């Protein structure tokens, strides 16, 4: 009888240990490759998001800064490119309608002074006035720019200030004055009554109006219709009561108030609506952690421009006595904001959302933006003005 032997047998302990070791090495390698791929994908997506946010924030800053003084303070032939404000109560900014000015570090900011008078300038620096996000870096900066709003042809209207200096009657003449400049594509001046759907360019509470080159006022009530007189085709009354939170309307002030123009030469001053924009950093109320760049325009509600902007610093080029003093973080003695020709963004540091394993990704923007209108005024001063 012939016997057969079964040649199959199991693995030895040594073989099992070697196989397990090789498998473990392969698993570790695969895990590392996967982890690196996930990290690379996260870094790429975060950097792409940072770049998009940078582009959006940079475009807005560039647009506003380059427009500083356009059609308003920068074209009036003033040696300081500024308008004096009332002085009985300190005028402050930035404000929203009839509610508050406490957006910058929880407190209002006083307008800059010269010779004891507060002035509204086309560019208003705010070194170290912002919040502190990183103690090692210190407080951040704020920046305010002012320019004419070309969307509302307010200078096409005749304006009469009442004896109290708190109500202005605007009437549209049948024959438009030569100073009337209509927005592109418009065939007639827009009505002054604001409606969100029908006439979004109308006057709103919180709007800042400059009269001639001598005074400014803040709208404190909805515009009302009135009966036109003579050959005028439309009539509106606009209120500038002394209730605005920024203390721009001060009828009792001996200087800088609209009441000064209720009689005499300035009974029908040319008017223009100003766009006043302030950039600053705050912390998002949604989580109490995320820093963000904010933009507040005139008397409207502040709007976030970009999240995770963790540092903001500016410097300025100042033109004085034929010499440009560059990169001035604080304006030198003998100069004022009306001499600024260029704004330098020294740091706009942005960080990504924090990742438990990868921390933050960060980018930092540095650039210079010329205030085109102010630069032109300095290089080609209006005859009779000292720059």
Essential attributes:
alpha+beta, 387 residues, 20 strands, elongated, 7-stranded antiparallel beta sheet, disordered C terminus
Q: Calculate Rg over CA atoms.
A: 30 Å
Strand content bin: 25-35%
What is the ordering of alpha helices and beta strands? HEEEEEEEEEEEEEEEEEEEEH
| Anisotropy-based shape | elongated
* Alpha-beta content class: alpha+beta
Q: How would a crystallographer describe the biggest sheet?
A: 7 strands, antiparallel
> How many domains make up the 3D coordinates?
1
End-to-end CA span: 124 Å
The mean pLDDT is 85
The number of E-state strands comes to 20
Which parts are unreliable, with pLDDT below 50 for 5 consecutive residues or more?
74-80, 381-387
Helix content: 10-25%
Count of individual helical segments: 2
What's the arrangement of secondary structure elements?
Elements: H1 13-66, E1 82-84, E2 92-93, E3 109-110, E4 113-114, E5 117-121, E6 123-126, E7 142-148, E8 158-161, E9 167-173, E10 208-211, E11 215-218, E12 224-225, E13 232-239, E14 271-283, E15 291-297, E16 303-307, E17 309-320, E18 323-328, E19 340-351, E20 362-370, H2 372-379
Antiparallel strand pairs: 1-5, 2-3, 4-5, 6-7, 7-14, 8-9, 9-13, 10-11, 10-14, 12-13, 14-15, 15-16, 17-18, 17-19, 19-20
């Amino acid at each position: 009888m012939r016997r057969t032997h079964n040649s199959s047998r199991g693995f030895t302990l040594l073989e099992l240990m070697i196989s397990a070791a090789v498998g473990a090495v392969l698993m570790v390698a695969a895990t590392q490759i996967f982890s690196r791929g996930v990290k690379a994908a996260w870094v790429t997506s975060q950097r792409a998001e940072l770049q998009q946010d940078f582009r959006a924030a940079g475009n807005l800053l560039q647009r506003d800064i380059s427009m500083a003084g356009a059609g308003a303070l920068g074209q009036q032939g003033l040696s300081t490119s500024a308008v004096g404000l009332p002085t009985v109560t300190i005028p402050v900014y930035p404000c929203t309608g009839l509610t508050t000015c406490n957006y910058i570090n929880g407190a209002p900011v006083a307008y800059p002074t010269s010779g004891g008078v507060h002035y509204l300038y086309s560019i208003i620096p705010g070194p170290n006035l912002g919040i502190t996000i990183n103690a090692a870096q210190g407080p951040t900066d704020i920046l305010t720019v002012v320019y004419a709003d070309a969307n509302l042809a307010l200078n096409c209207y005749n304006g009469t200030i009442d004896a109290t200096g708190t109500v202005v009657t605007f009437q549209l003449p049948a024959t438009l004055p030569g100073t009337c400049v209509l927005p592109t594509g418009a065939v007639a001046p827009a009505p002054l009554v604001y409606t969100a759907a029908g006439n979004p360019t109308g006057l709103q509470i919180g709007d800042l109006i400059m009269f001639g080159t001598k005074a400014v006022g803040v709208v404190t009530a909805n515009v009302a219709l009135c009966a036109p007189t003579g050959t005028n085709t439309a009539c509106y009354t606009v209120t500038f009561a002394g209730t605005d939170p920024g203390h721009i309307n001060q009828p009792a002030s001996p200087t800088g108030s609209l009441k000064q123009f209720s009689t005499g030469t300035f009974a029908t001053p040319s008017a223009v609506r100003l766009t006043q924009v302030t950039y600053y950093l705050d912390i998002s109320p949604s989580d109490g952690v995320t820093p963000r760049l904010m933009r507040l325009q005139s008397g409207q509600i502040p709007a976030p421009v970009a999240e995770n902007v963790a540092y903001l610093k500016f410097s300025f080029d100042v033109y004085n006595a034929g010499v440009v003093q560059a990169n001035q973080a604080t304006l030198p003695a003998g100069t004022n904001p009306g001499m600024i020709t260029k704004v330098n963004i020294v740091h706009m540091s942005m960080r990504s959302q924090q990742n438990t394993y990868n921390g933050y990704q960060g980018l930092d923007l540095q650039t210079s933006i010329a205030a085109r209108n102010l630069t032109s005024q300095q290089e080609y001063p209006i005859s009779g003005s000292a720059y």
